[in-house]
Amino acid sequence: MPITPTDKIWMNGELVDWDAAQIHVLTHTLHYGMGVFEGIRAYETADGPAVFRLTEHMQRLHNSARIMMMDMPYTVDELVAATKDVVRASGLPSCYIRPIAYYGYGEMGLNTLPCSVDVAIACWPWGAYLGEEAVSKGVRMKISSWTRHDHNTMPPAAKTTGNYVNSSLAKVEALKAGYDEAIMLSPQGFVSECTGENIFAARDGVLITPPIAAGALEGLTQDTVMAIARDFGFETKFDYLTRSDLYVCEEMFVCGTAAEVSAVNSVDDRPIPCPGPMTAAIAAEYAKTVRGEVDRYKDWLEYVD
Ligand code: PPE
């Protein structure tokens, strides 16, 4: 998906011009893939742009860094303030925000301990992540031939740049085969997540989502969806799912900051009712929640001004 440039990018404490936000070709993370990042959205609200669950995203960034033994040079509060500066500087009413912490230039080799950590935060306008069609018709899913990382190989609980090599292999395979998105199975064969979204599937009226133990990222949208579902009186739980559970589920959707709540219309060409009633209700409520239109969840909005 193409990037539309904005004016400024925050780099190591300063707002720099978009085109000046460059790094050296010998930047450590470019070679070894050990960086941590986030995907966040700001939405247009009646009170100006607001970033959805910003502090929690920055806490997760810090947690990813802890898993990687990377020393974060900025506190959560500093990153929150920097994000608001970037969004404000863009003048955009809504945008996608990409913070990244990476090992910079100056060291080579696999010992990361002496490496300096650089941090950047950029934002730009980003539309429907799984395509406009996906929103109206639902997405076609394929179980990937690529297995999700194991916890003892590449910790999937950390949002690490290198983890996404696995996601990209699966994404391209699925697109080439004519599907919209891939579903990854854990090394034990359980449903894990998609290349950039968590999964919910309904069995016997219960919305089930795979746990972190199955290799899923601890999704903030997943958490938002569970809160919204409970308000509607829908039962939700973390549990293991097999591919057969997906083939016979009553309804299914995937969710993430970029993808928001996207209904699934088939898995491996087995049709799934789409959008299911719980999916439709949750997707509509999610759209209102992120825009500050649901009083109960207003605390999740962090206003830029
Ligand atoms: N799993 C993965 C693998 C993942 O990348 C994301 C976010 C999620 C689950 C959902 O997490 P959350 O956003 O907290 O609900 N994926 C980001 C997009 C990745 C990309 O660069 O593309 C996102 O949604 O921003």
Q: Under the CATH scheme, which class of the largest domain?
A: Alpha Beta
CATH fold label of the largest domain: D-amino Acid Aminotransferase, Chain A, domain 2
Helix and strand element order: EEHEEEHHEEHEHEEEEHEHEEEHE
> Fraction of residues in helices?
25-40%
Q: Using DSSP, what is the number of strands?
A: 17
In the CATH hierarchy, what is the superfamily of the largest domain?
A: D-amino Acid Aminotransferase, subunit A, domain 2
User: How many domains, as an integer?
Assistant: 2
The main pleated sheet reads as:
9 strands, mixed
CATH architectural name of the largest domain:
Alpha-Beta Barrel
Bound molecules: ligand PPE
Structural class: alpha+beta
Description of the molecule:
The two termini are 29 Å apart. 28% of the residues lie in helices and 28% in strands. The chain is globular and about 55 Å long. The chain has helices at residues 28-32, 54-67, 76-90, 132-137, 164-176, 220-231, 243-247, 277-290; strands at 8-11, 14-17, 35-37, 40-43, 50-52, 95-103, 117-124, 139-147, 181-185, 191-194, 198-203, 206-209, 235-238, 251-256, 260-267, 270-271, 301-303. With 305 residues, it is an alpha+beta fold. The strands form two sheets. Strands 8, 9, 10, 11, 12, 13, 14, 15 and 16 form a nine-stranded mixed beta sheet that branches. Strands 1, 2, 3, 4, 5, 6, 7 and 17 form an eight-stranded antiparallel beta sheet that branches. It folds into two domains: 8-124, Aminotransferase class 4, branched-chain amino acid transferase, N-terminal domain (D-amino Acid Aminotransferase, Chain A, domain 1); 139-289, Alpha-Beta Barrel (D-amino Acid Aminotransferase, Chain A, domain 2). The chain is built from eight helices and 17 strands. It binds ligand PPE. Ligand PPE binds next to helix 6. Residues 39, 167, 193, 196-198, 217, 219-222, 256-259 line the site of ligand PPE.
